[in-house]
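Page 42, continued from yesterday. The earlier attempt failed because a stray header line got pasted into the input along with the sequence. Redoing it now with the clean sequence only.
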Amino acid sequence: MTVSSAVMGWSSFAIGEIDLSVKWLFVFVVIDYATGMLAASKTGQWSSRQGFAGILKKVSIFVIVCICHGVDVICQVDFLRSSAIIAYALNEVGSVFENIERMGYGHLIPTFVQKSIKLIQ
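This time it went through. Structure tokens are written below.
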């Protein structure tokens, strides 16, 4: 319980309030990593080195959110953290759809979503 409290206290300080946006970003990051691993294993491209690099990229997302929160606190504004979360969340969702496509299940993705992803790319 002490360790859990310490981790949550530090997270709250570093990232700001653990609100729905942070929770959803975490969910999207986990889903993206899982679907990426599944897609890589299905296509025969799975590599522990790439998996580790993927984890480092996911950790860097939260480091950047921490930095943005720190700048928000210093400048007494409240938009950099939210902007970073929105940008990364959209990127993770797009990556999930790409992974689904790589797995061969692209036909399950609605056409308007596929068109939106192509526009964003």
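Notes: The mean pLDDT is 90.
Reminder to self: strip header lines before submitting.
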